[in-house]
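ENTRY TYPE: paired fold submission
RECORD: A
CONTENT: sequence, then structure tokens
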Amino acid sequence: MIKYIRTDSENPDFIDLVCLLDADLAIRDGEDHAFYAQFNKIATLKNVIVAYENHVAVGCGAFKGYTPDIVEVKRMFVPEKLRGKGIASGLLSELEEWVKELGYKGCILETGIKQPEAIALYHKNGYKIIPNFGQYAGIENSVCFEKNLS
């Protein structure tokens, strides 16, 4: 059974998972990795969820405020060998519940075109593609999504 724990970016399991995520993204993004990495700092994330199975961290996700009504989902990751078990969808659901509890109305996020598993995950969970926002505007390797939670 998967257990989802609310925490922050100081959680050592979250930090370890993000290191694995960054290593994966460095390979996928290639020359573009430095551009994306600048927007993925975790030091100030106050809303983090870590998924555990048998007391072992198996996935993570986070969010931060984007506007007074919208949050940006960040640092979603499940190691490849653990995918296909519903962990990422569970993480999204838990994040969305927390977002609603805090009074936000929706979520936005960015992922890369070289991350087809992430794109499929967001489609499966009701996210819709939107024009690239903020720092991702005009970046052809980015795909942005939104989901209304109200």
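RECORD: B
CONTENT: sequence, then structure tokens
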Amino acid sequence: MNRSAWWSLIASSVSCFSVHALQNVEWPEQFPFKDEDFQRFDETSDSLFYEAPRFVTHIDDAAIAALTKYYSEVFPPSNTPGVSILDMCSSWVSHFPKGYKQERVVGMGMNEEELKRNPVLTEYVVQDLNLKPKLPFEDNSFDVITNVVSVDYLTKPLDVFKEMCRILKPGGLAIMSFSNRCFWTKAISIWTSTGDTDHALIVGSYFHYAGGFEPPQAVDISPNPGRSDPMYIVYSRKLSTA
């Protein structure tokens, strides 16, 4: 089945986000997207785009509260010995529960001034994942990886997700959250040309084709549909045998 036929079969029948988007998906044998799907309207240097710090939030307060509540339900308890968390594509806030702490919380982002301001981080790394998708961490290092409203900017997502699998501990949790807001000129074309359920399928495909993950799941945590920013989660765990 070619990409167009597959996409039409599993996505076109649903006009809004569905938590069932990733249930019983018959994935093609090969990754169904092409290089042009990961191009952006603005292909200038991402380092230049993110050079100036942006001390703003990119989703509204209700969506932030919904994400924080979700984290509180799925994160390991605060101050659990040996727990490490990586906040990928991080900035000056991570939206973790108030007072949440672990021995190691690493932020990886594009702007050092933003990362320095983030109070939850114990350390940070400045890195452009679109230029260097290799993650500078040892195998089986992290219990949780988060990514808030930034998965749509990854131009080498399979490389990044394979690296995520490598550095997660067996059974480790990866949480990709997204809304319908983004920097449109920097988001990949397959994202800007599709809708919310399609986005769940796109992120789910990253987990599936990266390998080493359990079947991905979708969750709608939108707090006030139609009245505030929507908020969606696609998550998976590293296979215990990976």
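NOTES ON RECORD B: The domain at 39-237 is CATH 3.40.50.150 (Rossmann fold). Helices lie at 3-11, 46-49, 61-74, 112-117, 157-167, 189-192, 196-210.
STATUS: closed
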